[in-house]
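ok so heres the complex, two chains, lmk if somethin looks off
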Amino acid sequence: MSIISPSEVTLLKLRRHPIVFFADSFVLVFLLALPPFVVFFMNITGAQLPNDGFIPVIVILCASIYYLYITLFLFYNFFIFFLDRWIVTSEHVIDIEQKTVFNRSVSKLELERIQDVTAETKGFMETLFNYGDVYIQTAGERERFVFKDVPSPQFVADIIVRAVDKLDKKGI
Amino acid sequence: MLSLLFTLYLALVFIWFIFSVLVITFTLRYHIFSVTNWMMIILYVIISLQILNVTGESLTKYTGTSQLIPFSKQRTYEYHLSK
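and the predicted structre for the whole thing:
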């Protein structure tokens, strides 16, 4: 069963800004690049690992596991980034949050319940890349919906406000 | 020592494999028609296979074999030769 009913029109489909994924993955990319740097510096300084016995095999196996797991964590980061979504339709706001592989929550909010929409951009990176948070104040059980690190938060807030206005006019 | 090392390595690779399959399955469960998703999965599989391939080649270079069981056989063979 689809989360959006056929009568609804999808206005926005949002994910976090890609720069957030790259910023989160920066440490992992740095760790990927670390062993070649170590080898490079060892070559410069003339230091060498003993080339006999178990040591080369241990180094190969450790490097193999190290790279396999870092690649896995990078892919896992992408997976979490990719499945975190916010959808704005003509009738609802849908918040799909993927916390971990086995932890996913989907919240649906009727546009009629929205009381206030706030767009917030703070910090150097957010201003430079034009992304930020959109807070949706509601009258429901869950008082505040947050669209985290979405691109063009001002535009998103504007679309939501317009959709609410349109729905109010239809209601009248 | 080497057998223990390989057993540990295989255990870690097994855990990695199970977790990779889980992550890929769950990603596909929610976004099976997404081109980006498929591209990322293919990229991940290619990189992983490449890492395993390089590991195998390096092991072959240093030990003469990339397989686990022939290690003991090879050592026995060399032992007989020396006698």
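quick notes: The first helix of chain A runs from residue 18 to 45. thats all i got rn
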